[in-house]
Amino acid sequence: MSTATAGGPTAPGRPGPSAPRRPRRVSALRTRPWAAACFLLPALVLLGALVVHPIVYSVHRSLFDASGTGFVGLGNYVELFTDDGTLTAIRNNAIWMAVAPTVCTALGLIFAVLTERVRWSTAFKLIVFMPMAISMLAAGIIFRLVYEQDPQRGVANAVWVGIHDTFDEASAWPGARPRPGAGLEESDGSYTTTAAVDAAGPADLPLVGVPPQDLTDAADARAVEPSGGEVAGTVWVDFTKGGGGEPGVIDPGEKALEGVRVEAVKDGEVVATATTGEDGTYALPTEADGALLRLPAANFAEAYNGVDWLGPSLVTPAVIASYVWMWAGFAMVLIAAGLAGVPRELLEAARVDGANEWQVFRRITVPVLAPVLAVVLVTLMINVLKIFDLVYVIAPGATQSDANVLALQLYLTAFGTGADQGVGSAIAVLLLLLVVPVMIFNIRRLRRENRW
């Protein structure tokens, strides 16, 4: 029978030495429950005072009427889903949740990927993230000015009008109209003489309604006498500063209207056209003899004033755009941090295998960043459910009801005219119920990641 020597094999039939057991970890909550309770108590008190108590009180208050003394059960909840204002708010919140987080996350992903390829990426990220340093109230005031209807004040309409006028020329004298008694009648914005004209005398066309500031650079009107069978005349502003002057007569100092289109019409067809010169005169060929003169509506169409960004149909997209301006930088920074952890070997291997940049982005970058994208998307979804400041500040009173969201409806119902805190508490409970599924999804995702 052999025996084990020092450092040699163990003798047959004799068990080898067992591995040392790891000490069993015992929870401090079991060994010293009172110490653990003392440490947890401040946090539990704050949690109860700031979270649990308001939730319980809101649920309790939502079962009572406006005065808080009459029990109405689920009556306030029934009112929620029969009130037009609340239904509009619910619909707008659904639009916000579907559009704003998605657009912010997509832009953040695009910015994060593209800035990896530029040398000034830090400066670009700083510029994109900078709106996060601005409060919601300040951002609302900024965009209220951006969306002003007047192109002289609103940046959005100034740009839009500039683009529009580049491709569609503005009218010569918007708002101008014939002087009463001048023998011109209106039809669909155009003005036509009531009697035919001939080459025997001047066919003058006196107008009024032009603002004095628009005539600062206008030349003085000049009377013209037809010659050679032409139909000629003058289009001018028949108004003398300080009063005086004779109606229908070109008085000294009265201003010419340059660029006005004049048409000669016979039997409903245009036989000749002319445009007034700097002194307001025009001349039509002999074909115009015996025709009616028409000033087309294009001469007097009101200047294009841009888009009503804060009107009923566009106010919600306009407010969402301001939110995206603020929060796209937040999404970009989080996604860029996740992108920094993507193994470069994977990307290079895909490129070596022949994948183009779009395939690398779609097949590798996006799947690897999926957990980060989920975090950004869920965070923004919770955030937009509470949106209040931007809508309250940007949307004007006339269209605030069209841009209404649940947080704003809660404020107006609970603290506005005819305050009803019972219905307001019901809206708060509804908001909580909408947030809970998103939070449950986020918690499950975090637990799943921890198990991995």
Share of helix among residues?
A: 40-55%
CATH superfamily of the largest domain: MetI-like
- Compute the number of strand runs: 9
**Which secondary-structure class do the elements indicate?**
alpha+beta
* CATH domain topology of the largest domain: MetI-like fold
Portion in strands: 5-15%
Q: Helix count?
A: 14
Strand order across the largest sheet? 2-3-9-6-7
The CATH architecture term of the largest domain is Orthogonal Bundle
- Overall mean confidence score, pLDDT: 86
Question: Per the principal axes of the C-alpha atoms, what is the gross shape?
Answer: elongated
Using the coordinates above, name the CATH class of the largest domain. Answer: Mainly Alpha
Overall tally of structural domains: 2
- The string of secondary-structure elements, in order, is HHHHHHHEEEEEEEEEHHHHHHH
Question: End-to-end distance, in Å?
Answer: 51 Å
| CA-atom Rg in angstroms | 38 Å
Main beta-sheet annotation = 5 strands, antiparallel
Regions with pLDDT < 50 over 5+ consecutive residues? Answer: 1-8
